[in-house]
Design brief:
Elements (H helix, E strand, L loop, with lengths): L20 H14 L5 E2 L11 H12 L12 H15 L8 E4 L2 H12 L5 E6 L4 H8 L3 E6 L10 H7 L4 E7 L11 H11 L6 E5 L20 H6 E6 L12 E4 L2 H12 L7 H12 L1 H25 L6 E2 L7 E5 L7 E2 L2 E2 L3 H12 L1 E2 L1 E2 L8 E5 L4 H17 L1
Parallel strand pairs: 1-13, 3-4, 3-5, 5-6, 6-7
Antiparallel strand pairs: 2-8, 7-8, 9-10, 10-15, 11-12, 14-15
Length: 406
Amino acid sequence: MSKSYDKLTIAKRTANIAPSLTLAITAKAKKMQADGIKVIGFGAGEPDFNTPDFIIAAAKKALDEGHTKYTPSAGIFTLRQAICAKLNKDNGLGYTPDQIVVSNGAKHSLHNVCQAILEDGDEVIISAPYWLTYPELVQIAGGKPVFVETTADSGFIMTPMQLEKAITKKTKAVIINSPSNPTGGVYSENDLRDLARVLERHPGVYVISDEIYEKLVYDGKKHFSIANASKDLYDRTIVVNGMSKAYSMTGWRIGYTASNVSLATAIDNMQSHTTSNPNSIAQYAALEALTSAEGDKFLTKLTKTFNERRKVMAERLSKMPVISYITPNGAFYFMVNIGMLKGKTIGGIKINGAQDVAEILLTQAEIAVIPGEAFGAGDYIRLSYALSPEDIEKGLDKLEKFLRNI
């Protein structure tokens, strides 16, 4: 008779991790493409153009100069200086290099934060729709995600009353994502100052401010960091950002946190025992992106390009039957309401939510979208406009034809 310690087991924490709803759709779309079917993918979570040449050149130079060794675990000092300068120039936030920890992408930064601040059972407030990784990171760290449902009428913005109602004695943090993936919602300065007034009444609550899409803001909106709302909020806000979206550097994996010194030290100590340091070559590439005049030129071009695509998608979607949407003010996604399709049977599939719609669109219209169940929003599908104008037009042609046929 075997004893319990004779059996191979897997840690219970892994059982809490939900499988990605996006992977099944993506895998099926790739299989169809391999079979010669021209699937248009609206699932892209990254810019569709290559990393700028001046950044690539900096990486090559770093290789030639032998910057291929371990770096300080928090990142090279010059990059942390450059991040401080960026936060000061763009966000009006004063940090010193010992408050900055560079990690292997913003997702890794978020993981580090959750591991550093959460104890078992701690609650983290997350507004829905949410980026699908937030609740998983919270649960991996032993925390409990608490969801606040927002609506299209509010622009998917969490209100002060909702935040106050969600806070309990177990609340350890709230995650603010502006501009938002998946909604494209942007919190105004007034929105964030209103939330800050609530949080000032609860001094034991951290704020995790995910600002990875900050450079992609449209219609005269301006990005504002809640860390700027007050001295109190500055001390307990962890700003999370990175290079992936702004500089088309998704594969380079450079993200960073800015926080109080004590927390930054804890994150650095932890990272020193996990990844040792971020990729050395990518750090030098990121340094060039943040300090070169070419960087600002690229950001201007990037925002203009995505704004033009956003307008095209909004115009086309406005002419389609059955669906509805709100025009996003940031990032590069549309959340499209497919609620009117629920209960219908199309192609032998009864529609109970967005996942069924995504399956039907893939098999019958040959377009891949991300179902809203992944974001806590089962009445929505997410469409990215981080793909070529030609593919946007072709994909929307297919979507419109499908909707008109039903």
